Amino acid sequence: DAGITQSPRHKVTETGTPVTLRCHQTENHRYMYWYRQDPGHGLRLIHYSYGVKDTDKGEVSDGYSVSRSKTEDFLLTLESATSSQTSVYFCAIRGPGQDAYEQYFGPGTRLTVT
Amino acid sequence: AQTVTQSQPEMSVQEAETVTLSCTYDTSENNYYLFWYKQPPSRQMILVIRQEAYKQQNATENRFSVNFQKAAKSFSLKISDSQLGDTAMYFCAFMNYNDYKLSFGAGTTVTVRA
Asked: Distance (Å) from the C-alpha of residue A59 to the closest C-alpha of chain B?
């Protein structure tokens, strides 16, 4: 258990509304990631963070923004949700020390945009 | 993002039998890491096994082992003595050395029959 929680775990929202998903970790990990999971695509990286206020884009960043004002929290925001953003969203952290090449995932958030 | 291909969308295996999942990847790099993740119906992503590209010896973790063929860019997972709890989706993933970002395949759903 890498001490990662995600909130909310499930959310249904309407097209055009803003949505923020939260990832919280308790073990002071520097690197945090947001992925989305869709059938036929596996998981794809949206954004990642390598420290407080240090973030960068991943493979599918269009329509998403992130913020990290504290080490423990990494927020993913959909400014104006679209149906194509219906997905399962996973947060992950990079392991410490000799596990630096391993990532540990949160429980996921299922988002439905109607 | 690197291309990771899992050509078997679904596989079925009898309890106590062996099943092998295939994975190929595309890279021009020499140093990288390969992973297999398991996602049971609970949706939790669980790291099964890791292989460093510079190691010739294939990784093993209890009933799980890999066949890493670097020249062929192939990384298969063998599950021996399959158990009902192995029923899950399995994802192959790639990470470049010092990149710390994962690229996933589309996944293979494994069903273990009693």
From this structure: 7
